[in-house]
Structure formats: structure tokens, C-alpha cells
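Posting for a labmate who doesn't have an account.
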Amino acid sequence: MEDGGFELAKMAVSPRAQGLGIGFLIGRACMTKARALGAPASISKAIPPLKPPINLYQKLGFRKAPAPIPYERANIQMELVF
């Protein structure tokens, strides 16, 4: 990212493996690595209005946040504060 932060982007799990918690484990591992690499106090994420990704990011600790959204297909901004 331009500001030196980190972004979790384009994560997907095979349809056959969905529902097994793999997305959560991948997301949690990414957040752990970001913290270890000195991520800033918060990480923002823009997502499309789809229930599965919103639920996943909420489980990872992200909360909806007012912020400009740099992507055309996304209209929800979420943020994780460490």
C-alpha cells in the first residue's frame, strides 16, 4: 500500500473446502505476519457487499469504518485496530 501499510486482498478458498475455517486460518496467519513485520496500528480493507467476506473479516476482528474506498466494486470499508 502507498502508506506503508498492509492489505489482505483477493483471498479465496476452493468451493470444496469452504466452510472448514480455512479462510479464517489464512486471514489470522496474515494478520499475525503483518504485526510481526511492523504493521501500523490499524489495517483497512474495502470489500464488496457480500455476506461471507463480511462475516470472515468480522471474525478476524475487523469492524466497519468510515473511510474513502479506493476500489470500484467495493462499497464497505472495514478496519482492524491492533
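Reply:
Got it, the C-alpha cells are right above this. The first strand starts at residue 42 and ends at 47.
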